[in-house]
Design a protein that fits this description.
Elements: H1 16-23, H2 29-61, E1 65-66, E2 69-70
């Protein structure tokens, strides 16, 4: 699988509708903090899931060899 190098500079703008919807919930600094934390949690979970999926794909492509021992599925 090819490695894709992404930079924060490549990050697309969020859809205006999403920004407006999120902004409608912000009444206090605490509200903003809660939304930011929720967004960060979801992004980190998605990134970890993608990494795990990648590792599982690599394992199945290589015959799932761990510590020099092949375990057939």
């Amino acid at each position: 699988m090819a490695t894709i190098n992404k930079s924060i500079k490549d990050l697309p703008q969020l859809p205006v509708e999403l920004v407006e919807q999120l902004a409608s919930f912000v009444k206090t600094e605490q509200d903003l903090s809660l939304i930011t934390n929720q967004l960060m949690k979801q992004v980190v979970e998605r990134a970890l899931q993608a990494e795990l999926s990648h590792h599982l794909e690599v394992d199945s492509a290589t015959g799932n060899i761990k510590n020099g021992v092949r375990h057939d599925l």
